[in-house]
Amino acid sequence: MSAPTAGHGPARTSRAWSAAGVLLLLLAWHVTARQLGPLLMATPWDALRAIGPLVRSEQFFAHAGISLMRIGVGVLAGTTLGFTLGMLAGHSARLRGLIEPVRWLLMAMPPVVIVVLAMLWFGLGSPMVIFITTLMMAPGMYVNTVKGMLHVDRQLVEMTHVYRYGAWLRLRHLYLPALSAPLLAALLIALCGGVRLVVMAEVLGAENGVGYALANARSAFDTAELFAWVLLILGLVALLEFALLQPLQRRLGRWMEPSHA
Questions:
Q1: Which one, out of 20, 63, 161, 189, has a CA that is 20 to 30 A from the CA of 172?
Q2: Would you state the pLDDT for residue 256?
Q3: What three-state secondary structure class fits 58?
Q4: Which ranges does the record mark as transmembrane (predicted)?
Q5: Distance in angstroms (rounded) separating the CA atoms of residues 79 and 114
Q6: In angstroms, rounded to a whole number, what is the distance separating the alpha carbons of residues 214 and 201?
Q7: Buried b / exposed e across 92-107, counting CB within 10 Å, b at 16+?
Q8: In 3D, which of 208, 191, 204, 169 has the Cα closest to residue 243?
């Protein structure tokens, strides 16, 4: 009797079933839009047709460019802050205890509360949006970094000290390989969450950007343009995941293979 094949790991996600899931979502969207009417929800076809005129409009690249800048700066600042604090806290139980109440507060507080406070402190514009994104992105990266640091083999850490590894060599050859899986998961969440946070902050308190354009489309009851922006946002998130994060994950997997041989 042949041996079971359970040790080969989980099966890869089926592309065919993923495509079927997309089709089911589009069908549900179409049916719901037909029931609600064009004033409340555009159909998928209406949203697709609205993308062309939207992209050719004068304001499109101005709104998209400022939002991309805010997403890039906010996510980079938040993940860098969370990673740095996580690395330091992973080495110090006292620092972990000091940071833990702040981490809990940020993760428990509703984002809309932070948006309102940031509007009071910074007014409208990019500083407010970037501040919100940084503040909300840092805790997730911090938690994943600390958890990864606590699972690093202590004997390997001691060995790097015996061989007089500097901080960079320890980071390059010990911590990054050990932290690659949780950090990639945190980065995926940060990128997707960063897009949502920036758009939400722009809807509530900005004078430009994609969220501002969404709010204008909503005020004018232009549901086709509103859902066209939604499709473009979804396309951006898909591009970030499939063109950036998944190739990075495959590259890190190849990088780690020799260490498991």
A1: 189
A2: 55
A3: coil
A4: 68-90, 102-122, 128-146, 174-199, 226-245
A5: 18
A6: 12
A7: eeeebeebeeebeebe
A8: 191
pLDDT at residue 261, rounded to an integer: 42
Going by the DSSP 8-state scheme, the letter that residue 8 receives in this structure is G
Residue 260: what pLDDT? 45
| In contact, 53 and 224? CB cutoff 8 Å | no
Residues lower than pLDDT 50 in the chain:
1-7, 258-261
Buried b (16+ CB within 10 A) or exposed e, 15-47: eeeeeeeeeeeeeebeeebeeeeeeebbbeebb
| Domains of the chain: residue spans and CATH | 51-250 (1.10.3720.10)
Residue of 186, 202, 74, 196 lying closest to 131 (CA atoms): 74
In whole angstroms, give the CA distance from residue 197 to residue 200.
5
Dmax over Cα atoms in the chain, in whole Å? 71
221: number of Cβ within 10 Å: 11
Rounded-to-integer distance, Cα 75 and Cα 136, Å: 9
The DSSP letter of residue 244 is I
Confidence at residue 98, expressed as pLDDT on a 0 to 100 scale: 92
Q: At what angle do helices 93-108 and 126-150 cross, to 10 degrees?
A: 130
Look up residue 193 and give its DSSP letter.
H
Q: What is the pLDDT of residue 73?
A: 93
Output the 3-class SS for 84-131: HHHHHHHHCHHHHHHHHHHHHHHHHCCHHHHHHHHHHHHCCCHHHHHH
pLDDT of residue 109: 86
Query: Could you give the CA distance from residue 136 to residue 116 in angstroms, rounded to a whole number?
Result: 14
Whole-number Å distance between alpha carbons of 106 and 64: 28
- pLDDT at 189 (0 to 100): 80
